[in-house]
Amino acid sequence: MNDHPRPEPASLRGERILLRPWRPADRAPFAAINADARVMEHFPAPLAERDSDALADRIEAHFGKHGFGPWALEIPGVTEFAGFVGLLTVSFDAHFTPAVEIGWRLAAPLWGRGYASEAAACAMHYGFTELGLPEIVSFTVPANLRSLAVMQRLGMRYDIREDFLHPRLPPEHPLRLHRLYRIGREQWMERQAP
Ligand SMILES: CC(C)(COP(=O)(O)OP(=O)(O)OC[C@H]1O[C@@H](n2cnc3c(N)ncnc32)[C@H](O)[C@@H]1OP(=O)(O)O)[C@@H](O)C(=O)NCCC(=O)NCCS
After folding, report:
1. Containing structural domain, residue 187
2. Can you give the residue ranges of the N-acetyltransferase domain (predicted)?
3. I need a surface site. Which of 47, 86, 109, 136 has the fewest CB within 10 A?
4. pLDDT 10s digit of each residue in the chain, 194 long?
5. How far, in Å, is the centroid of ligand 1 from the Cα of 95?
6. Alpha helices in 40-156 (DSSP H)
7. CB of 144 closer than 6 angstroms to any ligand 1 atom
């Protein structure tokens, strides 16, 4: 049995962004992001503070178990906490699982500057080169155009035949239909070639 504590998760640096481990001070700005109806437009509801804290707990537990997760996003010179961007194991059964998903959630005033795409490219590169993942997926509802645009900017591919009903939502829920995007390691590495 391996009872050594896991080392601190890696931090990833982009030109303008830093993906770093979570700190206790991130909780309050994270709760404000999760309470914002604009940020949560494509989720069932904004989160109360205790639910936001519980989500931060689950994110930290994911790092503890897997060594990676949705990192805290810092934009040096702009803000110490802008939200999260990172990788997580899909926690439900679907036609594409088991799989590792890439996801993002940023404070609304920071949208429209390319931070999510820059951070996601760093996380994806780490997933393929350091974690050795064969493939990364992402999914959202068809109305979440900003999130779909990030997936497309990353070079992820969509096939309508892979649309699925999110099993965590009840059968008649209006957000149940999701689009799945995928990218394989070879595809990603080809995009990095000069
Ligand atoms: C999804 C989300 C992260 C996308 O954020 P975003 O800021 O639109 O995404 P990007 O970082 O890729 O920024 C792209 C925009 O910045 C602009 N931009 C400015 N400078 C840029 C740069 N240097 N590089 C790239 N894009 C740049 C792009 O033109 C684009 O503008 P547009 O929105 O007018 O087309 C954000 O909307 C969000 O947090 N939503 C709520 C949570 C959510 O729904 N998460 C996904 C659940 S599946």
Report:
1. 12-192
2. 17-176
3. 109
4. 456 666 788 999 999 999 999 999 999 999 999 999 999 999 999 999 999 999 999 999 999 999 999 999 999 999 999 999 999 999 999 999 999 999 999 999 999 999 999 999 999 999 999 999 999 999 999 999 999 999 999 999 999 999 999 999 999 999 999 999 999 999 999 999 87
5. 28
6. 49-66, 115-129, 145-153
7. yes
